[in-house]
């Protein structure tokens, strides 16, 4: 897994700050948080998709933001921030959990198509931030229950489809 640099984490934090600032200074309606929360969860879950397209895109996102962040931070401050920081993982997915994450990605694509331009931007930014921050040891440690939730939902769905009830 490609790790995150301090500059990459700073870019991800800046993206979230700008998204949350707009919400905070606006009406603070919970519905306005949907694109950001959905994007963060989608980005976070992509970091545990190690052999699939989502995992590959997550790695490419980290690589691009690490490079761009290093260039921006170095250009702004004159310091180098391109060293990787501690990498973490939230765990793994079972077959059933993989199905739940697939459905999450389908829902995210459908939401993206339905959102207006501003919401699309917040969703995309939050996906990027989730891909970056959830590869750090600290954030991955805080969110390590997400794959377990997906695995549990998937197991319940499989039991329901097999006629075993929930």
Number of domains: 1
- In percent, how helical is the residue content? over 70%
Can you tell me the overall shape? globular
- What fraction of the residues are assigned to beta strands by DSSP? under 5%
Low-confidence stretches: none
In whole angstroms, the N-to-C terminal distance is 35 Å
Largest sheet: none
Gyration radius (Cα, Å) is 17 Å
Provide an overview of this structure.
There is one protein chain. This protein has helices at residues 6-25, 34-46, 53-77, 95-114, 117-133, 137-142, 146-161. It has one domain. The longest helix is centred in the middle third of the chain and has 25 residues, at 53-77. It has seven helices and no strands. α1 (6-25) crosses α3 (53-77), α2 runs antiparallel to α4 and α2 runs parallel beside α5. The protein is mainly alpha-helical and 166 residues long. The mean pLDDT is 94. It is globular.
Summarize the structure.
This protein is an all-alpha fold and 166 residues long. The protein has 7 helices and no strands.
Which terms would index this structure?
mainly alpha; about 70% helix; 7 helices; about 170 residues
Topology:
Blueprint: H1 6-25, H2 34-46, H3 53-77, H4 95-114, H5 117-133, H6 137-142, H7 146-161
Helix pairs in contact: 1-3, 1-5, 2-4, 2-5, 4-7
